[in-house]
Design goal:
This protein is an alpha/beta fold and 171 residues long. The chain is built from four helices and seven strands, in the order αβααββββαββ.
Amino acid sequence: MYRALGDRAVAVEREKEIVLTPEGFRRYEEELNRLTTVTRQEVRARLRDTKPTSDEGEDAAYDSAKIELAFVEGRIQELREILTRARILAPEDIRTDEAHLGSRVRVTNLSTGRELTLKLVSPLEAAPERGQISTESPVGEAILGRRPGDTVDVRTPSGTVQYRIEEIRAE
């Protein structure tokens, strides 16, 4: 961890607890396992196989493998830090009276009548294509702490959208 006075803000941010859903924690563990047991070895093998035979010329394949290995090692380090700092959200911690981290919230777009089911997750777990939205996203911020029956306004690039919270459940 950074301890220099000038890096204090970075140190505080890096030491902050990360709350993850059990699914998010499992996905990070699986990614770390894949990177350390498969990807890292594949890239190292490619690095050995493309090592330049002379000192004269540049080798694009070798350089590319070096860069890829650096990215893999960086991601491994990042995942280890996330998993070390993570606290797994227990099912009993998920509230159903108000929308909070881990809640599955069914909302209705009041303009279109379309219903959406969204799971509120940490920014690290956000995957809108799977219906997992960050508590720091515009929709996540708007519904956080709200109750069934509440109506919220969400600013979007195309204008303000109103949603009514229909149901909150834990899963």
